[in-house]
Batch of 3 targets.
Target 1
Amino acid sequence: MIKNIIFDLMNVIIKKDSNVKTLMNFTNDLNKAEELQKYIYKTEEWKLLDLGNISHERAIEEMQRKAPKEYSKLIKEVMNNRCQYFTVNEETVKIAKNLKEKGYRIYVLSNLSEFAYEYFKDIAFFKLCDGIMISAYEHLVKPDEKIFTTLLDRYQLKAEECLFIDDDDTGKSLETANKIGILGRRVKPNDSQDVLNLLEEYKIKV
């Protein structure tokens, strides 16, 4: 019997556009936006931010150092201001609220930097949560099995009583979760209806 619903954040609770579309808020040049991806999102520093193994400021410095000088200003602007272009998926938050009212416990398991979490930490959704696990504070990222087992151990959860809602398009996070007994499948990014579909598949009515 499912008692616990575990939500990913990005593209589930927090809506974001594709990386290129996000970058287009900082430049009108599509080619530059596409090029800029590799100097931000495809860097080692980006991974280290999710792991909590580098400071926000140091990550920016390293990204700037490795990129052509013409991108330095843009890199800093994007890193400091990108979160303002993300929005809360109110429909999915409403689903979480209804689940909470029905007696389900709500948890978060998300790969996220400290900077991004601090930006969103005061949103109403987090007040619903019985536990929050953010990768940067754990120095672990999905799909590492240890971050899942840490969540289970910390909050004394049974894997078979948990349903995980994640949009990971690689499938690796759900593969790890399912391997240790946590239920769930990938949901479409930013798609509240697919969240409802998943809940229905497990006979959970909202």
Target 2
Amino acid sequence: MNRLLALLCCAFVPAAGAVETFTLDPDHTFPSFEIGHQGISVMRGKFNRSQGRVMLDAEKQTGAIEVRVDATSGDTGHDGLNKKLLGSNFFRTAQFPQIVFQSSVVEFKDGKPVASNGNLTLLGVTKPVTLEIRNYGCTLQFLTRRPMCGADVHTVIKRSDFGMNYGIPMIGDEVKLAIEVEGFKDY
């Protein structure tokens, strides 16, 4: 699958007066999704590999985000379901191995990023998406003392908007995306 969720993203507030860049930590960035299944339960899954960068200027309250999710790393915890999910009816990973979110708009409130408006590309289709940034914070990583920031990122999309129509309505159209994200400041 070409690009999808990227889901996800985070935002980091740099020191006043300077653009700072953060590289997402793949060991602490966790894109996940929820979708209704036959009107009686919620199916959950995740992507095990992602990468990205966030650039922010706290003084100007501007930023840019790019996140790439390896769609082939999709995982529901069930081997048979994973094969279906990554196959021709859903993510079509042979043709579209990445999901991408790109944004040059980051919204701030009280000096912290709270949203990012950008484009999500999934199955070769690009649509505008707004990511809500929650629980944003920064600290020093306790072992390396390296500056890091993180957040929980959320949005809801309709998979049919990206041409993923298989199984609707028994398998829900609305997909909730949640991304736990952390990134280290680049030097």
Target 3
Amino acid sequence: MHVPDAASPRVFIVITTFNRAGHLRELLSSIDAMDPTPSGVIVVDNASTDGTPDVLAALEPRVPVIVHRLPVNAGGSGGFAAGVSRGLEEGAEWLWLMDDDVVVLPDALASFRPWMDRYSCIHGRRYDHAGEPFFWQHILDESLGVHLPVRGDVFARSRVFHTNVGCFEGMLVAADVVREIGLPDARFFLNGDDLTYGWLISRRYPVAYVDAFVLRKTRAQRQVDLGVRHLNDSSDLSRFCGMRNRGHLARYLRLHGRFSPVGFSLGTLLSAGKELVRLVAVERSLAGASAVWRGWRAARVILRDPAWRPEPPLAAPASAGGTR
């Protein structure tokens, strides 16, 4: 059982970036302004073709920055797998995972500190591009294989909300937990990788969403508020991966005895329907519908693949249990 240690945590921020040099520069500047600062930063450059290498070469950071450039774009999943692995090699005790289109708030680590002696996987709150609270409060319905929104203010009665999903736009996870669960599954490429990783962690440890703002989104996104949930704009690649990766999620659910063929089929229909609503309501087009169909077909191939194996742990599993 992992026992979190917040006395003098060695925290490494892991950033995955691809062709967003301006956003990356802003993020790295915000990290230098933190108090307290992390022990280091690992930037995984996913074979960017813009000015990202120049931004990284010109750094004169207050916080040590390690640049880990990949020869090809491995997606968010592959980038975080590589970055987390490098963080473990550097002796990180905690890994704070984030995309490149956010900035950290100066007191972010101080805001996390009270929770780090209670939990091994923590998410803080985020502001959106306009400075409003960013919506993120989901629970994975295992029978459907769909993350469903929790209505209302989850912090109305408590400063912590226990969930069973993860988000790589701000997940803070203990290194020992990563060793036990394994690296993020690079096969996802993007979309659904963090949800699944959080669910795998939640099988052994509480996953906490805490009432403390630690990040602000810097990239503006079109979105629509449907009341029970928000839908942001997307891309054909994200739509394809989102549907295809249901195949990987189904295999993990099956592995842990939580797979319902009928329920998951219904969840796949709901997921496809959500993407069609997103296309109509947010992007005003149905041109991306073919990506949804191609992803659906790819998921069926994964479900039948006899060679499929889960991402293995990096260390022998500890006894079941967790922190409070």
